[in-house]
């Protein structure tokens, strides 16, 4: 088991990078219609969905490179908690039925990053070595 534990910090970085890439695509979809526009269309500027898309794009980019990971992850975790309780939970009690399972997972992955940090493959780690 100790052989696997050696990899834990690097796998933390991989988790952060993969989660950020997927999360970032939600922002590009809402703001630019890439890779495909949302079914409801692009959100109007300054609307709640537009602000969420900005958070997803900018926050996703920052998490992707591992910059300011703890505060960014805290904000994004909160965004996902709000998204779940505001838009998914009122539709149905069960996350698998209300479409909110991704919001819950993002919320808790980002909450974990608040405490665990970015891992060794990050701007945060490089900045702390200097």
From TrEMBL:
<feature type="transmembrane region" description="Helical">
    <location>
        <begin position="72"/>
        <end position="90"/>
    </location>
</feature>
<dbReference type="GO" id="GO:0005886">
    <property type="term" value="C:plasma membrane"/>
</dbReference>
<comment type="similarity">
    <text>Belongs to the DoxX family.</text>
</comment>
<keyword id="KW-1133">Transmembrane helix</keyword>
<feature type="transmembrane region" description="Helical">
    <location>
        <begin position="45"/>
        <end position="65"/>
    </location>
</feature>
<keyword id="KW-0472">Membrane</keyword>
<dbReference type="InterPro" id="IPR051907">
    <property type="entry name" value="DoxX-like_oxidoreductase"/>
</dbReference>
<feature type="transmembrane region" description="Helical">
    <location>
        <begin position="7"/>
        <end position="25"/>
    </location>
</feature>
<protein>
    <submittedName>
        <fullName>Putative oxidoreductase</fullName>
    </submittedName>
</protein>
<keyword id="KW-1003">Cell membrane</keyword>
<keyword id="KW-0812">Transmembrane</keyword>
<feature type="transmembrane region" description="Helical">
    <location>
        <begin position="102"/>
        <end position="123"/>
    </location>
</feature>
<dbReference type="Pfam" id="PF07681">
    <property type="entry name" value="DoxX"/>
</dbReference>
<dbReference type="InterPro" id="IPR032808">
    <property type="entry name" value="DoxX"/>
</dbReference>
């Amino acid at each position: 088991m100790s052989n696997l534990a050696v990899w834990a910090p690097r796998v933390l970085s991989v988790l952060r990078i993969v989660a950020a890439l997927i999360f970032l695509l939600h922002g590009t979809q809402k703001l630019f219609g890439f890779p495909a526009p949302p079914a409801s269309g692009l959100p109007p500027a300054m609307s709640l969905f537009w602000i969420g898309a900005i958070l997803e794009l900018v926050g996703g980019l920052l998490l992707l490179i591992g910059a300011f990971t703890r505060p960014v992850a805290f904000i994004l975790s909160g965004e996902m908690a709000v998204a779940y309780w505001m838009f998914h939970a009122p539709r149905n009690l069960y996350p698998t039925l209300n479409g909110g399972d991704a919001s819950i997972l993002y919320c808790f992955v980002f909450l974990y990053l608040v405490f665990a940090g970015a891992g060794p493959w990050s701007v945060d780690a490089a900045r702390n070595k200097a």
